[in-house]
Design brief:
alpha+beta, 211 residues, 10 helices, single chain, binds flavin mononucleotide
Length: 211
């Protein structure tokens, strides 16, 4: 799948088919995770695959009762082995530990999408419960749980009912924070206007941007 297509089509999936996932596919997805950038190339991410049904139920329970997670045949728990980051970066390392793992998580979500799988980044959990359940040592951080499964619905179709993202035009500044004045004619909103009416009233759009 084309990268931009995967980025735009990926959605959090919370209903899954009762269908196994081949471990070869999971390993490819995790390998994609490991290609993420990391500060000083420390690659502090660690991946824990959970297939056992009872354990998955307990994980969902530890994720403050997000029982929809039970439907996913595999849970990936993303952990951080952070000794190298901490000794290299001291206090600043706290940020990098999370950022490195977040980059790996996003790669995993995109690779899953590429493989026709659904996933969700789950960050709400009781850390102590997960630690005990999965034997995760105190010096290892727990960054996220990712349920993986074949999606039971088409999220894009559901999405059409709502606009799911803020407009990039309003999130982007030129040269200085809060400055939206420069060449915004390249942005999607203007292109949409152009489709509707060839004589685009840039003055009108400029006013919109100033709001
Ligand atoms: C750090 C983080 C934590 C999240 N935790 C949860 C969670 O615990 N449960 C859940 O259902 N979704 C969780 N999400 C998913 C978001 O709700 C979702 O990404 C957001 O609503 C945008 O929807 P989309 O992923 O379909 O584009 C989390 C996402 C992130 C980045």
């Amino acid at each position: 799948m084309d990268t931009i297509k995967a980025i735009k089509e990926r959605r959090s999936i919370r209903r899954y088919l009762d269908k196994e996932i081949k471990l070869e596919i999971v390993s490819e997805i995790l390998e994609a995770g490991s290609y993420a950038p990391s500060s000083g190339n420390v690659q502090n991410w660690r991946f824990l695959i959970v297939k056992d049904k009872k354990k998955r139920e307990e994980i969902a329970d530890a994720c403050l009762g997000q029982t929809w997670m039970n439907q996913a045949p595999i849970h990936i728990v993303v952990c951080g082995d952070n000794k190298a980051v901490s000794s290299m970066y001291k206090k600043k390392g706290e940020k990098y530990i999370i950022q490195n793992c977040a980059a790996a998580i996003q790669n995993i979500l995109l690779a899953a999408c590429d493989k026709g799988l659904g996933s969700c980044w789950v960050g709400v959990f009781n850390e102590d419960k997960l630690r005990t359940l999965l034997g995760i040592p105190e010096n290892i951080s727990i960054e996220a749980v990712i349920p993986l499964g074949y999606p039971a619905y088409k999220p894009i179709a559901e999405d059409k009912k709502h606009r799911r993202r803020h407009r990039i035009e309003f999130l982007t500044f030129f040269e200085k924070y809060n400055e939206r004045e420069l060449d915004f004619s390249v942005w999607p909103l203007v292109k949409q206007y152009k489709k509707l009416d060839e004589k685009v009233n840039l003055g009108k759009i400029r006013k919109l941007f100033k709001k």
